Amino acid sequence: MSSATPPRPDHVPASAVYSSDSAQWCEDNDTAVRRWYRDGQPLLDARLRGGKLHGELSWFTNHPDFNYDEAARRAAEALQQQYGLPIGPPLTTRIAAVYEDGAIVTATFHGYPFGQIALIASWRNGRLHGRFEWQKITQGELLRFGDTVIGAHDVKLPKPHPDRGVSEFVDGKRKSTAFFDREGRELVQPKPLKEWGQNFTTADLAGYVARGEFERDLAAFFPTGRRVTELVEGARPLESWIDRLPEAHRAAARAFDALVRSGRFPWLGQRFDVSGSYGFDCVRNGLHGAADERYVGLSADGSGDMHLLDTTTGRVLGYEHEEGRFDARRGFDDLDAFAFAMIRAEAAAAKRIPAKKLADLFKALGLTGGLAELD
């Protein structure tokens, strides 16, 4: 053994020879190609038949974001190029593939955290064919292999972004795609709404919540997806603030409260999320600029800005969490106007209602707060 040869790691077989040029342990024969970095870290384990990749293959890499040895990463990428292996999603740490007489059949890409599967793909005659499944990837490339490049935005991703996407390919062409949340429920992408209250008048707004129209519209606009089953910790019960409200506002408050607590309220994460804000105790949480018993939380948008009910007037106020102040543009006269506007703003954010037509309706109804939510 030359002085340039490092000590053989315990799990590197005696048949492997060290190459100082590549800083790798190499074991090549008629049935396998195996590589280890100098410290024994595995780089490639591939089966051969007739000089071609055949059977199981494992390829390992180290991504620079993990602060591992740069030389090991370069060595892994060189092997990937040398054997024409597919390039998977960002942060891929391992490929487990199956080949048949030099043609790839399946590949599973493991990512970060280590062991987590990022992508599974299959091929027939060199083309993607069958199930193509990826996890929690919403941007960038999913796969690059030969002339095939598949990106996360090749299909329209629903919002909130899915936990998993599954496509079906036939001879290289994508035929279908389905999305799933973290509980495994399919995220059905609803079609644009044909009827969304285009003919509402100002007179129709009064009683919108108490009459049950708000609940009806919620069910019609957002029929799928998860429902709100838990509220913010320490949510104030209705009984602690309902008596403060002017009598004319109490029926709407009772109906709104009952609906939020019923388990039928959909999770609306872009404009109208009640799960993290309904019943929010502004005093207990020391809400800057609004730590007063008169205010109680109603909902929040995706950035954390909230809507608070002023229990002394029945008005709904827009609260900016970064500035710790109220935004007069985002206010509503009452819960009816607020509920009517916010579910439609949510639907517009999901591209299910034309934003311009909705803005025209808000102007006609005098809902300046709704216009602010469309910005």
Instruction: Kindly name the structural category.
Output: alpha+beta
Count of runs of 4 or more consecutive helical residues: 7
Average pLDDT taken over every residue = 92
Helical content (DSSP H or I, runs of 4+): 10-25%
Largest β-sheet summary: 12 strands, antiparallel
Stretches where pLDDT is under 50 for at least 5 consecutive residues are none
- Cα end-to-end separation: 71 Å
What fraction strand? 25-35%
Q: Strand tally, please?
A: 18
Which H/E pattern describes the elements? EEEEEHEEEEEEEEEHHHEEEEHHH
Rg from C-alpha positions?
29 Å
User: Which overall shape is indicated by the principal axes computed on the Cα atoms?
Assistant: elongated
Describe this structure in words.
With 375 residues, this protein is an alpha+beta fold. The chain is 19% helix and 30% strand. It has seven helices and 18 strands. Strands 1, 2, 3, 4, 5, 6, 7, 8, 9, 10, 13 and 14 form a twelve-stranded antiparallel beta sheet that branches.
Main attributes?
375 residues; 18 strands; 30% strand; alpha+beta; elongated; SMI1/KNR4 family protein; twelve-stranded antiparallel β-sheet; four-stranded antiparallel β-sheet; single chain
Give a brief description.
This is SMI1/KNR4 family protein. The chain has helices at 70-82, 202-205, 213-221, 247-260, 335-349, 355-365, 368-374; strands at 17-19, 24-28, 32-37, 42-49, 52-60, 94-100, 103-111, 116-124, 127-128, 130-135, 141-145, 148-151, 164-170, 173-180, 295-300, 306-310, 316-320, 325-332. The chain is of the alpha+beta class.
